[in-house]
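ugh finaly. both done.
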Amino acid sequence: MPLFEYSCTQCDSEFELLVAVRETPECPQCGSQKLDKLMSVASGRVANASALPISPGCPPPEAGPCSPNCCRLPQ
C-alpha cells in the first residue's frame, strides 16, 4: 500500500495515510473524505555524509524541523 500525504479541507489537519487501491481515505481528526492530496518531499542520504537540506528554504539544523513534513533529512 502506498503512503500518501493529505490535507483535510474541513478541519485543515495534515496527515499521512497508507491507502489501498480501492480504499477511500478519511481524515483521522474529523472523519471527512474531502481531502486534498499533497506533494511529498523526496529525501535521500549520501553515504558517509551528514544530512543535507533538500531546499535552500530549509531552516538551519539547530532550528529543528520546520513542519511535520519537513524538507530536511532526519539527523
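ok and the 2nd:
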Amino acid sequence: METLFCDLHMHSCLSPCGSDDMTPANLCGMAALKGLQMIALTDHNTADNLPAALKCCEAYGLLLIPGMEITTREEVHLLGYFPDVDTAVSFGQHVREHLPGKQNRPSLFGRQLIMNEDDEIIGEENALLIGATDLSLWQWTEEIRSAGGVAVPAHINRGSNGLLVNMGFVPEDLHFTCVEVWRDLPCPHTPQAGRHVLHSSDAHYLGDILEPEITMELPESTVSAFLNRISTPPREIS
C-alpha cells in the first residue's frame, strides 16, 4: 500500500471564483512545494484546464485525479472524478450544454481563463460557469457513473450548495459510497456511516491548498486505484 498526501478539491483560474494566480502550473507547483502527492483539479462545470494540469503534475511528480464540480438543478455541488483527462474534458463539454446560457461578466464574477502548461492564456470561457445546470442530482450522478467516474457530494455540511444544507439529507437511492465533509463545521454522523469521507481545501487561492495533513492509502499510485477505493464501500470494523 502507498500512503499519499492529498488535496482532492481545488479550483483553477478557469473557475470564475478562482484567483487568476491559480494557473495549472502554479497550483501544481504549490501542491508539490507543500509536499502533496495526489491532487484533483475540480473546476466549476468545466474541465478545460485539466490537460495543462496533467502536464504540470507529470513535471512535478504528482498524481492528478481528473475532476469537476458540477452544480445540479437543485444547486447542489457534486464532484465528479473521472478515469482520465480526455473523459473529463469530453464530459465537461456535455455539462456546458446544460448551463443556463448566460454570459460571464468578468467584472462581477471574475475571468475564466484557459491556460497551457507554460502559464500562457490560450482562451477565455465566455459562458458563465458558476450557475446551476438543468439536470438533477440524480441525473448527473448517473451520467458521471456512466462515464466511468465516481460521484461525490461536495462539502455536504457547508454553504447553500452543500447537500445536507440544501436538501437536508443524503438520498439513499443514489448509493453514494463517498462524501466530502468540511472539517471546520459540525456534521451529523449518519451521512458518513458506511461511506468514505474526503476532507479537502476547496482552494480558490494558492495559500488555501492543504498542507500535507490528509492522507489516502492506495494499493498503487494510479487514478484507477483511487476510483476503485472511493467507489467501494469501506469495510466495517467489528
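summary for the 2nd one i guess: The domain at 2-231 is CATH 3.20.20.140 (TIM Barrel).
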